[in-house]
Task: inverse folding
């Protein structure tokens, strides 16, 4: 909103300094400062409100040290993250940008599903919360919305560098001349460690018949549904000890912010030889606001936590990360970038699968880990949760750096 206000003032009255709101870097800086301030200053007020309403966590007895002390800690703290993200976005972002609209829809959609789950757990005293099938239906619904929008919306395009005999668009930026073809609809994405660094989903069907390219949405949308479901569930499983999900997510989000900024900037995308995605740079505003909200939330969520994010926060975080990865065409880097989420997911799948297999074969279920998800395994081994969290953060930073390096490793 402030973007439009100052743009109007500059155009109509030539207000000195109003042009600064046209700079992405300024608006991104203001977004992270405001979101960080909102989450730290007003976060305490929200926590006090949740305490007054007795919105406390009901802790299941898992036999973990210090677990009983967490009983009664306010949950639904994801509201702090959502509130602190959306306000800066509404103030500083271009709200007609399709990527920003998609991220706002994702936040509200997944936030609502998580809120319903937390509400059932807290007020209905049902520890199981919202039935798993309804969560999955919600995740599939979001996947359909995101996939269909990415595939069909005319403003979601890519621009590819042109060979000398294919130049359709030449841009002079400073002393640099950048040659690109016209923006086009495409299902291309970034694939790591490959020379041309691109993969087209339509190739999964056009090998049968080139005319089937128009049916590529039958491949693309299910892939998007799978990514949204997997990442949101991964974030949900990671939210098990103080500060783990929020800190790990902040690292992932800031990395995706770098990708969004580079992909949307024609000079840097040309220099780094990465896919240029018109209008994607505006996601940087959303990403910085989201990152600031996560870091501000950590003020109250680090050990010992004064508030838990609940599914209101974890499902929202996972959904946003999935959509950011898809929008920046970096979803095939998720196994590396979101390696923490992947490890947590796999530990549960392996534990459950091995337990069922051994019970059927030997009549007695056996376990791979002392407990799953993975962070509980290390708790059972006697590590303090703060040490586990910091070590997971370090691994997350390492994975983020590897992800960034893949841009040039081909």
Result:
């Amino acid at each position: 909103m402030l973007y439009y206000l100052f743009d109007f003032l500059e155009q109509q009255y030539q207000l000195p300094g109003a042009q600064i709101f046209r700079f992405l870097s300024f608006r991104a800086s203001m977004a992270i400062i405001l979101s960080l301030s909102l989450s730290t200053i007003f976060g305490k007020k929200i926590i006090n409100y949740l305490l007054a309403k007795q919105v406390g966590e009901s802790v299941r007895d898992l036999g973990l040290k210090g677990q009983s002390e967490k009983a009664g800690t306010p949950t639904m703290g994801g509201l702090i993250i959502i509130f602190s993200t959306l306000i800066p976005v509404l103030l500083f972002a271009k709200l007609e940008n399709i990527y920003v609209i998609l991220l706002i829809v994702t936040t509200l959609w997944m936030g609502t599903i998580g809120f319903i789950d937390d509400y059932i757990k807290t007020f209905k005293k049902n520890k199981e919360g919202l039935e798993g099938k309804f969560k999955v239906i919600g995740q599939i619904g979001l996947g359909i919305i995101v996939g269909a929008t990415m595939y069909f919306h005319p403003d979601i395009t890519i621009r590819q560098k042109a060979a000398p005999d294919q130049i359709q668009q030449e841009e002079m930026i400073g002393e640099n001349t950048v040659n690109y073809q016209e923006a086009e609809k495409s299902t291309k994405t970034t694939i790591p460690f490959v020379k041309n660094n691109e993969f087209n989903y339509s190739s999964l069907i056009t090998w049968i018949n080139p005319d089937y390219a128009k049916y590529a949405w039958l491949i693309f949308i299910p892939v998007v549904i799978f990514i949204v479901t997997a990442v949101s569930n991964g974030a949900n499983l990671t939210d098990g000890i103080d500060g783990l999900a929020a800190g790990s997510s902040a690292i992932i989000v800031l990395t995706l912010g770098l990708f969004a900024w580079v992909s949307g900037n024609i000079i840097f995308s040309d220099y780094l030889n990465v896919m240029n995605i018109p209008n994607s740079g505006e996601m940087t505003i959303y990403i910085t606001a989201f990152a600031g909200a996560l870091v501000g939330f950590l003020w109250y969520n680090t050990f010992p936590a004064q508030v838990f994010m609940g599914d209101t926060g974890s499902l929202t975080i996972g959904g946003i990360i999935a959509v950011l990865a898809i929008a920046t065409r970096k979803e095939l880097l998720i196994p590396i970038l979101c390696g923490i989420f992947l490890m947590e997911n796999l530990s549960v799948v392996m534990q459950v699968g091995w337990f069922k297999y051994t019970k059927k074969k030997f009549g007695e279920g056996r376990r791979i880990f002392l407990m799953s998800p993975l962070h509980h395994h290390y708790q059972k081994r006697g590590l303090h949760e703060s040490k586990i969290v910091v070590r997971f953060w370090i691994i997350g930073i390492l994975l983020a750096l590897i992800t960034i390096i893949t841009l040039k490793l081909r």
